[in-house]
Each structure stands twice: as C-alpha cells, then as structure tokens.
Design goal:
Layout: H1 2-12, H2 25-39, E1 43-47, E2 60-64, E3 67-74, H3 81-84, H4 88-96, E4 100-103, E5 107-111, E6 116-120, H5 135-149, H6 159-187, H7 192-203, H8 210-232, H9 251-257, H10 269-283, H11 287-293, E7 300-301, E8 307-308, H12 310-322, H13 324-330, H14 337-353, E9 369-371, H15 378-389, H16 396-410, E10 411-415, H17 418-434, E11 446-449, H18 466-480, E12 485-488, H19 501-507, E13 526-527, E14 530-531, H20 543-558, E15 561-568, H21 578-587, E16 590-597, E17 622-629, E18 636-641, H22 646-654, E19 664-666, H23 680-688, H24 692-695, H25 708-711, E20 712-713, H26 716-728, H27 731-738, H28 742-752, E21 762-768, E22 771-776, H29 787-790, E23 800-803, E24 816-819, E25 822-823, E26 838-840, E27 842-844, E28 850-852
The chain binds S-adenosylmethionine (SAM).
Residues 331-335, 373, 375-376, 378-379, 414-417, 420, 451-453, 488-491, 498 line the site of S-adenosylmethionine (SAM).
Length: 856
C-alpha cells in the first residue's frame, strides 16, 4: 500500500542515532489519518500537547462524533514495547481506557481490556535494508489499526457503572491536579489552581493540604460535570459550555467549574485529557436509564441490603472505587437513614409537643433548622420529606409555597468539603425536581460551603471567587441569626482538625469576638467554677465536643431551641467531661440520651452477653442526644440503651420516636455527673474507699509517640535503620516519606540536625501486655514522653503498678498489671484509648537519693 511505503521512506530519512520520540510524529499522523479515511467514520486523530509530570497524557486522542474511542501512545523507535507495557504509565492509561494503541513507529500493540494484539511493520535492525514493506506485515498493521478505530465510546446505563467510571477518572484527575499544584507551588507561577488552593486554605479550612484540595477539587469537577449533564439532558456538554448547564442558583460550583476554561493552557494538559474523558462519558450516557435508577421514589439497597437513598448509594459506590481509606480518614461516611429518621422524628415530636408548634418542621413562620455538618445532606432530605409529607398530594401550589418560602429560606446546611457539598446540592435539587419544583435563578438551597466553627468577617472579600465571598457572607448571616433546631452528625476525631481560635477559646468560656460580656459562657474546662485538674484534657478537644459547644452557644443566644445529634458517646461518662456535663445541665432544661453503644474499644456486649455492634463502621461507641431549652419547661434528664446487632438497632430506630421510648430518668450527681443510670448504693461504697491517686505521689499514663511505626519496633536494629533512613532523606521529603505528624514536622529541622544515629537512646518498653518492644526514646520528638514518671524506669531498677482509670463492660475487675519498664499509652490493650496510669514504687532524685512514691 502506497501510504505505508511513504511512511517508511519518511522514517528512514532521519539517521537512527538522531531519532527522538517526536521525530516521526507527522509521518505517523499521516499514516493514521490515511487509515481512518478508509473507514469513513468521522474519526478524528487529535494530537494532544503534553505537560511534564509523573505520567503525562497519551499523545493522540481518537474521537468519533462527540465521543472518545481511544488513545495512542507513541514511543521512541528503539523502545521495547513489551517492557513499556509493564510501566506505571501504561497501567494508569489502562485504568482509563479499554482501547489503547501503543507504538514505537514499527511495532503496534493494540491494548484492549483483557487482551493485547501485536503487529510489526519491520524490525529496527533491518529497517534500512527494506525498500518496500511486506504486504503481510502492512495488512496486519492496517487491520489492527482499523479494529482499534472500530471501538465505540463507553456507553453507561446504570448508576453503579457510572459511579465506578467517575471514581476511576476522579482518582486520576486528583493525581494530575496534585502534580500540577506542587509544580505551581515550586515555580511560584501564580497559576489559577494554586490560587484557588490558597483561597480555600485561607478562607475555608486552614489545615487543608495540597493533596486534600486536589482530592476535593477533582471530585467536585467530576460531580459538577455530572450535574451539567443532568441539566443539559439531550444536549452535548463540552469543555466550553459545561458551566452554563450548572444552574445560576448553584453559583459557587458554576464558578469553580469555570476553571475548565483554563484547561487549554499547556500546564493543565494532563488534567485536560481526564476531563475530556469525563465529558465524553457524560455525552454517551444512557441518561434516561440513569435518571430512572436515581429516583428518590425508588429505594435502593446498600451493601448491607438496607434501603437507602439513591445518591448515598451512588456516593458510597463512588468512594469505594475512589479511595476506601479516604472515607474513613475524612469522616465523610453518611449517617444511616434509620438513625436520621429517629432523630428527625423525635425533634418533630418536640416541636409539636414541647414548643406547641402544631405542624412541626413544616411551620414556616416559627421553624428554622441547621444541619451543622451536612455532608451529603441525609438529615436535610429527611426533614424535607417530613415537611412535604404534610401536604395533600393534589395541592401543588401549597407545595410550591412551602418549598419557596420555607425549604429554600429556613432550612440550612453547613459543610466545609466541596465534594459532599456538591453532592448535597445535587441530591436536594434532584429531590425537589422530583416534586416538580425547579429551583429558580434567584433562589438557592441554603447549603453553604463554610467552616461551622469559624466565624467570618462580614466585610470579607475573597480573591478569585466572588461567589465564595457571597457564600461566606450568607453563611455568616446564618451563624448570626436565631435558629430553633440544630441537628446533624458532626465528625469525631480525637486529633481535632478544627483548631480555630474562636471555638478553642469558646470551649473555655471565652467568646473572643463578642462585644458583650461573656463571663457566663459555658466552660467545659471548669467544674464547680474551678479549673478541671486534668493532666490530659485532649479528649475535650475532640471535634464533636466543639460542635456540641457550638450548638449550645447558638441555642443559649436565643434562649430556646432543640438540638438533635448523633456523636461519640464518650462524653456521657468519661470523667474528663464532667465540666461539660455540668455545663449542659445548667443550660438545657431537658436532655434525652439514647446510648447506641457499639464501642469495640470497650469490648461492649449486650447486658445478656451477646454481640453488640456499631451503627457505623467505627470502633467508637455512639449516642443520640436531644437537648431542649425552653422557658418554664420542667427540668429532666432521660436515658435509654439500644443494644444488639446493627440491624436490631436500626429496627429500634425505625420503630421508635421520643414518645414511644421507655426512658429512665436519671439524676446526675457529684463528683462526675454521669449521664448514665448509676447504682446509688455501690456509688457510696465506692467513694468511701481510698483513691489510688491519694496513695501515690506521682503517676502518669504511658508514652505517646505520635508515630509508632517510626519510634517502636520489635527489633532494636530496625530502629537504627529507620533513623539512618531519616538522616539520608532530604528534610523537604521527610514528612511525606515518614508521615510525621504536624507537630513533629514543625520541630523536625531543629532536632534532626542533632541526630547522631548510634547515640540515640533505644530502650525496652512494655507496649502491650506480654508484648515487649524497643522504643527510640527521643524526648523531643515523642509526642508525649511523660518523662516526669518514665525517667524512674530508664536505666533504673524499679517496678510500677498499672491501673486503668475505668473498668467498663467487664463482669469482674481485672485492669491491673505490674511493670519494670516504661509503658506505652495502650498498655491496657483490652480497651485502646483507656487511660491506664503507672504508679512507680520508687522515685529517684537527681542527688542520687531514692524515695518511696507512697504517701506517708
Ligand atoms: C459524619 S459526616 C456527616 C454525614 C452526613 N450526615 C451525611 O449523612 O452525609 C461529618 C461532616 O462534617 C463535615 N465537617 C467537619 N468539620 C466541619 C466544619 N468545621 N465545618 C463544616 N463541616 C465540617 C465533614 O466534611 C463531613 O462531611
């Protein structure tokens, strides 16, 4: 065939030693075009610009009509394609496309989903000898390329397939965005992407890392494009028009999707090919089928065969394919609808019976609601359903009024991650659409991208994103206005990411932005008006405690209201939380606690010894709390337990509300004010005995390293190896390579200079019962070295008593051990998180004297 011979001639025209990857691109393109002309199929071969990066993007994109059918990657003429097949780059491409052509100009590999077909024009060593190519060879290559062209764009017709396809693309997009962000940061190039990152970091979430932003931004773009397609319906979505299909009422996402305008710049070349892929995917969806499968009227079963809303199911499938760890790490797990239903129905009861608001949530004159950690909007959907259920089926005008005047005015949500924020909007807008309500351009859902726990300056002007400025102002206006109902499922994390000044001070009774006197503010760090004498009050800094404090603050300001939430249950009985409990008792008139248990750290079992499971996939036990404040309401605190398997708990949630539950009235009393029923007789007996903390002079819980993998090992030598490895790593790469905590990271430069590998103190530690290990005992680098007590065990002959502070969930008390070494915090491993102080028998003084630690 003539064009093959022309191709060969061109290839031979450059001496072999001068050939680069790009030398024969034009010859290859002509050949590819000639073969496509034979097919008369409107095939386009587009040469894509590349950006240097870890993986880059393929050299050619092949489209048919509006869809992408495959990619071509070409390598140098002497490249061994069999080796290239095994590279990370090709693995990555294969995740994204089932139709790839790999060539080194002479060999052609057609890579399909499950097979690879190979053809060769001629061998590089004999290339110069040939005048014409053998027909057998050219026919083989011709057929292979024609078959490659014959593939159709991926067509998707189920929500599950779509969620997975989007997740794979979002995951790759995240990698490219992260690469590009790092590049822009390094080059200080003033790129828009890095500018957006800085904006989010400064105005939404100070601790946001580049990787977290890349992650959220990639998810937002992918979901934004999905929303654009839902609105475009049969029209074709393009890079240029996508933002116009995002409704005006969703201005922030419209503005962020506007980032797509940047993609024609070379620096975004790698991200662009993924976005092109997503757009092609969108334009080839069986949209009607997808829409049908995502109707709210159709229930969907989740992985545990439980009915759930179609968007939750979609997002869960998406996250499972995207990054299973992320879900847990970010706490972006959804709240089970059964739990939400119990909370929402109970609040509705309270509105009707306690506040005498006859139509409960549906009263548009009296009721305002805030979900303060909205996530994907599970609570808000349940509330919307409840409001709309009240309206007769044939009364569309009434329905429209309640949507426009109540749902779109008084029902608020705060969320600080763009991905769940986008989904919450998408989900609620689709829900209203199903109710035949199209949100108008001058309306919007009242869900805001904001940090609930950080007030915003009302004069704020956020660079690059005018819509975010408006968003921040609107959110602040809600933070300032009276709200009657606060609900939600806040994050729980002992290592709080919400470290803002305002909320941290508010926990201690100081409202730093208030112009009014604030001496009566609730203070969780005080008990009976005196500071808590806790050595470790870290758990009071947990995220959920801050959200409870926020709700208490809001309701106190108005003087009445109701809070219905699900959180960790540890505040119910942890001694450190006694100040918080006392303060809640002062500010709220009635409190209801449903302890949902499931605390695998406490090894909880049902009262009759059976399995007790958590309603989430977490170890931390949880509870539902309802706090009510209302003038002249009779005071009372009520408690109940839900025990059993997850299904049993869900059933209890579905079959109950505030009125049907059998409550036990409790009367929390000194010294701990436990929000749990207590046996009075035993309590008296218990408090008659000596306190162990009064027997010994000093005690301390075990060491916390902040990074056990780095500091603790079974073999001493491994620790030296790790220290050596750190020494050999550039300081700038240390945090990434060794996952140092932030605190550790800040100190590292200063301390690493001091590290002399062999001089480091490596000693034995009792890590868990009968589990002795070695610890790199560098006091400066350990998160908590507890030196005041541990020093009496280092190079000393001593013993110490280990006694846990609480013994929950055990039939007989067995939380006691003896140690002759320093211990780690989790030494009482039957319940990680259980504080188990050691009480040394001797204390050694600097002057060489040895004293007993028992008080005389
Ligand atoms: C457990 S999830 C809520 C799940 C939600 N109810 C649902 O079903 O999707 C907690 C949510 O709070 C958000 N969040 C955490 N800290 C926040 C803050 N300071 N301001 C606003 N949202 C926050 C997280 O991003 C997450 O989406």
């Amino acid at each position: 065939m003539q064009y093959f011979n022309d191709y060969l001639k061109k290839i031979k025209s450059v001496p072999l030693e001068e050939i680069t990857e790009h030398s024969h691109r034009s010859a290859l393109q002509i050949l590819l075009e000639k073969i496509s002309e034979n097919k008369k199929d409107n095939i386009k071969i587009l040469h894509e610009p590349k950006r240097e990066g870890k993986f880059g993007s393929p050299d050619y994109k092949i489209t048919k009509d509006s869809g992408i059918i495959g990619y071509i990657e070409n390598k140098k003429i002497d490249a061994d394609l069999n080796k290239i097949l095994k590279t990370e780059q090709i693995k990555k491409y294969r995740e994204l496309s089932d139709n790839i052509l790999l060539t080194n100009y002479l060999d052609f590999f057609w890579i399909k989903k499950d097979s690879i077909q190979k053809e060769t024009l001629c061998d590089i060593f004999t290339l110069t000898k040939f005048k014409t190519l053998s027909k057998l060879n050219t026919d083989g290559v011709q057929k292979l390329i024609e078959n490659f062209y014959s593939q159709t764009p991926i067509g998707i017709s189920t929500a599950k397939e779509l969620a997975i396809a989007l997740a794979i693309r979002a995951k790759n997009l995240k990698d490219f965005l992260q690469d590009e962000l790092t590049q822009q940061q390094k080059e200080n190039s003033g790129g828009l992407l890095f500018g957006l990152y800085e904006t989010f970091q400064e105005y939404i979430f100070t601790d946001l890392s580049i990787s977290e932003f890349a992650d959220a931004f990639a998810q937002m773009l992918v979901y934004g494009l999905f929303q654009a397609k839902l609105n475009a319906d049969t029209k074709t979505v393009t890079l240029q028009n996508a933002k116009y299909f995002i409704p005006q009422s969703f201005k922030l996402i419209q503005e962020l999707v506007g980032f797509l305008d940047e993609l024609n710049k070379l620096e975004y070349a790698n991200a662009k090919w993924i976005i092109d892929e997503v757009i092609s995917l969108m334009n080839n969806l069986d949209l009607q089928e997808i829409k049908k499968s995502m109707l709210f009227s159709k229930t969907v079963k989740d992985s545990e065969n439980i009915d759930t809303d179609p968007y939750i199911y979609f997002y869960e499938t998406f996250l499972a394919a995207y990054d299973t760890n992320l879900r847990k790490a970010k706490g972006v797990y959804y709240t089970p609808p059964q739990v939400v239903s119990l909370i929402v129905n109970s609040i509705n009861n309270i509105l009707q019976n306690t506040f005498k608001i006859k139509s409960g949530f549906a009263d548009r004159k009296q009721v305002t609601v805030l979900d303060f950690a909205t996530g994907t909007g599970t609570f808000l959907i349940e509330i919307l359903k409840l409001i709309l259920n009240n309206i007769p089926v044939n009364s569309q005008s009434k329905k429209e009024l309640i949507i426009s005047e109540h749902i779109l005015k008084n029902i608020y949500g705060f969320e600080y991650l763009i991905a769940p924020y986008t989904i919450a909007h998408l989900k609620l807008a689709q829900f209203l659409k199903e109710q035949n309500y199209e949100i108008k351009n001058n309306e919007r859902l009242q869900i805001f991208l904001t940090n609930t726990l950080e007030p915003t300056d009302p004069q704020i002007r956020i660079p690059l994103l005018p819509a975010l400025t408006q968003e921040a102002k609107n959110a602040q206006a809600i933070k300032d206005k009276p709200i009657l109902v606060i609900t939600g499922n806040p994050p729980y994390s002992g290592h709080s990411k919400n470290t803002g000044k305002w909320i941290s001070k508010l926990l201690k009774g100081n409202d730093i932005y208030s112009k009014e006197k604030t001496e009566n503010q609730a203070n969780y760090f005080e008990f009976d008006g005196k500071p808590l004498k806790e050595r470790n009050s870290k758990w009071l800094q947990d995220d959920y405690v801050k959200f409870i404090r926020f709700a208490q603050y809001k309701i106190n300001k108005v003087g009445q209201g109701v809070v219905g939430i699900i959180t960790s249950h540890s505040f119910l009985d942890n001694p450190t939380f006694r100040g918080m409990r006392q303060s809640l008792m002062q500010d709220f008139d009635q409190m209801y606690f449903i302890d949902l248990h499931g605390n695998s750290r406490r090894k909880e079992k049902t009262p009759d010894g059976k399995t007790d499971k958590n309603v989430f996939d977490i170890m931390q036990g949880v509870c539902i709390s309802l706090f009510i404040k209302k003038k002249s309401l009779k005071k009372g605190i009520y408690h109940t337990d839900f025990w059993g398997t997850r299904d049993e708990k869900f059933e209890q949630c579905l079959n109950n509300d505030l009125q049907s539950i059998e409550w036990q009235k409790i009367e929390p009393s000194k010294p701990f004010y436990l929000f749990k029923p207590q046996n009075k007789d035993l309590k008296e007996k218990y408090f008659k005995f000596w306190k162990i903390t009064n027997i010994f002079n000093i005690n301390s819980v075990g060491v916390v390293t902040g990074n056990d993998k780095l500091f603790i090992d079974i073999k001493k030598n491994n620790l030296y190896e790790k220290i050596k490895e750190i020494k050999a790593t550039k300081i700038s790469e240390q945090q990434q390579n060794f996952s140092f905590s932030n605190k550790f990271y800040e100190k590292r430069e200063e301390y690493f200079r001091e590290i002399k590998t062999k001089k480091q103190k490596i000693i034995k530690i009792n890590y868990r019962p009968y589990d002795k290990r070695y610890i790199w005992h560098n006091e400066k680098l350990l998160e908590r070295s507890r030196s005041n007590v541990m020093q009496h065990f280092i190079e000393k002959e001593n013993i110490g008593l280990i006694v846990s502070r609480s013994a929950i969930g055990q039939t007989s008390w067995q939380d006691v051990q003896i140690t002759d070494k320093i211990t780690e915090f989790g030494i009482m491993s039957s319940r990680p998180g259980n504080a188990a102080p050691i009480y040394p028998l001797y204390v050694f003084q600097e002057n060489g004297n040895t004293n007993g630690n028992v008080r005389k």
